[in-house]
Amino acid sequence: MNNISLGLQIEQAAKIIKTGAIVAFPTDTFYGLACDPFNANSVEKLYQIKKRSGNKAILLLVSSIVMLDRCVDWEKMSKEAMQQFELLAKSFWPGPLTIVFPALSTLPKNLVSENQTIGIRYPKYDIAQKFTQASGGIITATSANLSGQANAETAQEVFSQLGDTIDYILDAGPSPGGKASTLIDLSCSPPKIIREGAIETKDIQLVLSNNLITS
């Protein structure tokens, strides 16, 4: 696919996201499902499409660290947690590390966890970066599959699982694949690895000087 057609796809996908649509797109790892996270109806549609339990929060992508201010309740983070975030961001962002933060109360209730937290990632993958930026700087990024089924690495795999239940597939060829993003919770002390993925626990331990719960 040439850059012109890909650019037009990103432009089109970003335009319809703002109308409440659901778009599949490639992330740092697998294809994800994007919608406007501040549109509660769109978030609810994501759950229905994936047949996902409502008690599982939806992850977000941001186009820059500045965008965290629209999602994160910084006042609920300790000084130590803020320092840990700065270390993690400096070492692993942009990249496949999803960080769980205390969520702002202004976020839709169906977007956040029962503990009022939100998982956020700053992607490194160029297409995901450009799409997130074009869509307003913050989008959802839950995996583009039926809940419990295999992750999708291509647009064809997305369609085989979700078909026309989604509004648009940003087909940029195969996604990088590999392991899913590593998930770390900074809303607790010490921070906890919820899921080891593309970034190994040992590398995070080095950055945080072993101040980490790993199981």
Characterise the protein shown here.
- With 215 residues, this protein is α/β, with parallel strands linked by helices.
- It has one domain: Alpha-Beta Complex (DHBP synthase), CATH 3.90.870.
- Helices cover 30% and strands 17% of the residues.
- The strands form two sheets. The chain has a six-stranded mixed β-sheet.
- Strand 1 and strand 2 form a beta hairpin.
- It is globular and about 45 Å long.
- The relative contact order is 0.22.
Residue share in β-strands: 15-25%
Please state the CA-atom Rg, rounded to the nearest Å: 16 Å
Runs with pLDDT <50, length 5+?
none
Q: How are the strands of the biggest sheet laid out side by side?
A: 6-3-5-4-9-10
State the CATH superfamily name.
DHBP synthase
**Whole-number tally of structural domains:** 1
Topology (elements, then pairings):
Elements: H1 3-17, E1 23-26, E2 31-34, H2 40-50, E3 60-62, H3 79-92, E4 97-102, E5 117-121, H4 126-134, E6 138-140, E7 142-143, H5 155-162, E8 168-169, E9 182-185, E10 192-195, H6 201-207
Parallel strand pairs: 1-8, 3-5, 4-9
Antiparallel strand pairs: 1-2, 2-7, 3-6, 4-5, 9-10
Helix pairs in contact: 1-4
Quick take:
By secondary structure, the chain is an alpha/beta fold. Helix content is 30%, strand content 17%.
Brief descriptors of the model:
10 strands; globular; 215 residues; DHBP synthase; alpha/beta; 6-stranded mixed beta sheet; 30% helix; 4-stranded mixed beta sheet
